[in-house]
Amino acid sequence: MTKRDRLNADDIAAGLADLPGWSLAEDGLSIEKTYRFKSFVEAFGFMSQSALAAEKLDHHPEWFNVYNRVDVKLTTHTAKGVTALDLALAARMEAAASPACP
Ligand SMILES: C[C@H](O)[C@H](O)[C@H]1CNC2=NC(N)=NC(=O)C2=N1
């Protein structure tokens, strides 16, 4: 089993348990979350950090931004479903969305 193999429903549910606000899309083929920030600049900062994480993972989000809102959908095109890479990118996005407290 590799990171690009499609996960079954149980494995997806287990992964989502560690990702607050993320859920399985209705079609069961992707995971999604809507982020809201204080401003466009904060939203764009989140997207910039997420973009760098995506490049490192060689795994890229589908997303839509309006002002302070970012709708994110993660799926693995090659697997036609959710893989460990989607869960890994979601975890990086969670970190990008909540700056570490000193
Ligand atoms: C060649 C390259 O590794 C692939 O095209 C990668 C790039 N980023 C990707 N991102 C996503 N979300 N799904 C993919 O299948 C995918 N494939």
From TrEMBL:
<dbReference type="Pfam" id="PF01329">
    <property type="entry name" value="Pterin_4a"/>
</dbReference>
<dbReference type="GO" id="GO:0008124">
    <property type="term" value="F:4-alpha-hydroxytetrahydrobiopterin dehydratase activity"/>
</dbReference>
<protein>
    <recommendedName>
        <fullName>Putative pterin-4-alpha-carbinolamine dehydratase</fullName>
        <ecNumber>4.2.1.96</ecNumber>
    </recommendedName>
</protein>
<dbReference type="InterPro" id="IPR001533">
    <property type="entry name" value="Pterin_deHydtase"/>
</dbReference>
<comment type="similarity">
    <text>Belongs to the pterin-4-alpha-carbinolamine dehydratase family.</text>
</comment>
<dbReference type="InterPro" id="IPR036428">
    <property type="entry name" value="PCD_sf"/>
</dbReference>
<dbReference type="GO" id="GO:0006729">
    <property type="term" value="P:tetrahydrobiopterin biosynthetic process"/>
</dbReference>
<keyword id="KW-0456">Lyase</keyword>
